[in-house]
Amino acid sequence: MKSHFFAYLSKMKYINRWGLMRNTRQENIQEHSHQVAIIAHALAIIKNSLFGGSLDAEHIMALAAYHEAGEVIIGDLATPIKYFNPEIKEAYKKIEHIAELKLLEMLPEELREYYETMLHQESDENHRVVKAADKICAYLKCVEELKAGNEEFMKASANIRTQIDDLGMPEVDYFMQVFVPSFSLTLDELN
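-> structure tokens emitted (191 positions)
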């Protein structure tokens, strides 16, 4: 038996994000997923260490690594389009679900149960952390673009920062205060 699952996932590097905006540097969903995984892992550790949480940081990191996997089949739909109205949002959710099922079907039957929770993003505390990390990464992309002089990301930066502040998650607030300011620095300033 042969499976195309991981070959399909390797195509994530060809799917760029922020398709409706001019970018000084392209970002693909594979590198984005890696950054979300690292930050989601950190958020779980921060919650556990400082705010009395009991999250499985490694499981959350795995969820984050797969959170865009369906886009290898359907591509990345820009946020303004995805959330343009409730009908489009609902239709896109159905399309995402179909893509997730197609990916699961690529796996040998005996492995599917292990990947099902990775591909089907539920609404629980673990996925809430992944979504928060996803927002932080979107904000960091805006910081990077603004730092490079690309003012096209100005409004997105302000909107995403408001969404992050409205999450009401102390681990997110901590990350934003302690780690995010460094992303505005040059390499020389980091040293």
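Residues 125-147 form the longest helix (23 residues).
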